[in-house]
Amino acid sequence: MRIQILRKKAWLLLFLGGAMTVQAQQPRFYKDIQRFKQADSIQSPPKNAVLFIGSSSFTMWKDVQDYFPSHRILNRGFGGSTLPDLIHYFNDIVVPYHPKQIVIYCGENDLAASDTVSGLTVAQRFITLFGMIREKYPRVPVLYISMKPSPSREHLMLKMDKGNYTIKELLKKDKQSAFLDVYHLMVDDNGKPREELFREDMLHMNRNGYAIWQKAFEPLLK
Q1: What is the DSSP string of 48-115?
Q2: Per the domain annotation, does 189 fall within a domain?
Q3: 19-23, 26-30, 110-114, 176-180: which has the minimum mean pLDDT?
Q4: At residue 11, does pLDDT exceed 80?
Q5: Is 183 inside a domain boundary?
C-alpha cells in the first residue's frame, strides 16, 4: 500500500513538473494571442477593417469602436508589448485579418524596458515591422502613432522625440503611410506632459486623453 502511495506521488510530481515546464516554455503574451484566436473562433472578425495593433494604449481603449462609429475597428493591442513582440506575432495579429488599414501604437515600452534601447533602436525595430507589412500588403495604408509623453516616463521623452522623428522621416517615403504626432498634442506650453490626460498611474490615458486621440485619428482613418 505504501509503495502504491509513493508511486502516485511520484506520478503527480512528474505531471506537475511537466506542466510547469510547458508553462515556462510559453513565449511572452502567449495567452493574449490565444484569447484573440478564441474570440475569432466564437465570432468571425470583420472583413476589411481598420486594424489596431500595439501596446496598452490600444488594449485599454476597449470602447474604441464607439469613438469611430463610421469605421469598422478591430483592436488587437496587447498590453506591455514591444515592437519585437509585434514582429514575433505578426502572423497571428495581422495576417489573418486582411485589413484595409493598419494603425500602430508601439515603441514606448521598448524604451522603458532597457536603458540600452535608444530612439534609433525603436525606429530600427519599426523598420523591420514595416518591411514585413509591406512584403505582405504592398498597398495597405499604415498609420503610425507617435510615442506619447507619459508623465511617469518623462525621463524618456528625449528618446521618444528622437524615435518619433526618425519614424516620421521614414514614412514620408511611402505614399500609403502616415505618421500621427500625438506627442505634441499631449504636452503643455513648457513641453511638460499634461497630467490631466492620464490616469492615476500617470502612464495610461483617461477619457480626456482618448478624446484628443479621437480628434487626431478621425481624418486619417480610411
Answers
A1: TPEEEEESHHHHT-TTHHHH-TTS-EEEEE-TT--HHHHHHTHHHHTGGG--SEEEEE-SHHHHHH-T
A2: yes
A3: 19-23
A4: no
A5: yes
Q: Is residue 28 part of a domain?
A: no
For residue 44, the SS3 value is coil
**What CATH number is given to the structural domain containing 98?**
3.40.50.1110
Q: What is the count of structural domains for the chain?
A: 1
Say if residue 5's pLDDT is above 70: no
User: Can you give the pTM of this predicted structure?
Assistant: 0.88
Does the structure show a pLDDT above 80 at 17? no
Range of the domain at 64: 45-220
Identify the burial level of 152 via C-beta atoms within 10 angstroms of its C-beta, where 0-12 means exposed, 13-18 middle and 19 or more buried.
Answer: middle
- 184 found inside a domain: yes
Burial class from Cβ neighbours inside 10 Å (0-12, 13-18, 19+) for residue 85 reads: buried
Query: pLDDT band at 6, cuts 50/70/90?
Result: very low
Mean pLDDT of 2-13: 47
Name the pairing type of β-strands 101-105 and 142-145: parallel
Q: How far apart are the first and last CA of the chain?
A: 71
Q: How many CB atoms lie within 10 A of CB 84?
A: 15
- The alpha carbon of 4 is separated from its chain's Cα centroid by a whole number of angstroms, namely 51
